[in-house]
Predict the structure.
Amino acid sequence: MTVKRMDNVLIVVDDVEAAIAFFTELGLELVGRMSVEGEAVDRLVGLDGVRADLITLRTPDGHGRIELDKFHAPPAVRAGPEDAPVNALGIRRIMFAVDDIDDVTLARKVETEIFRAPDAPKGDVSVDVQAGVVYLRGTVADDAWIQRFSDDAKKVDGIKGVKNLLHRPGTPAPAAEPRSAAQERL
C-alpha cells in the first residue's frame, strides 16, 4: 500500500471563527460545517459526552482538506506548553505554497481602505491583487460606490493599478484583460 495523497489534517481550535478567517484568507474554501454529538461520536473519538463543531476547508487545488474541530464538551486540553520547542512531539508545522504573500497583504489593505465606511456595501464585492494590480469584482447598487471603491483602492501604498470590474445589478460586468497582459504593461 502506498499513499495516493494527503486527504486531510485535523486541527483542534479554540476560536473557530478566527481559524476559518485565517485559512480562507489563504485561499482555502469553506466546504462544510456541522455539529456532532452522541454515542456514535463518543465511540469514534474515544471520549465520553462529546459535543463539537466540525468545519471542513478545501485547498484551492481541490485535493487537500483541513478539518477544524471546536470541542464544547469535553473541553479541549493543551497537550504541552504553549511555547513548546520545535522538537516536541506532535504537529509543529503545516505549510502551503501561495502565489504572492505581498499581493495577499495588499488585498487585505485595500479591503480595509474601501470598506472603511460603515455603509460600504461589502457583500457582493471581491478584491484580488495580482502583481500589485487590484481587481475589483462584483455588483454594487450605484455608480457612486463603483467610483469610490476604485478611488479608495488607489490610495493604498504599493498598488500599481486598479482594474474596476464592478457593475450595477442587472448590467453586464466589464470585460477584463487577461492578468498576464496587465502584468506585462507594468
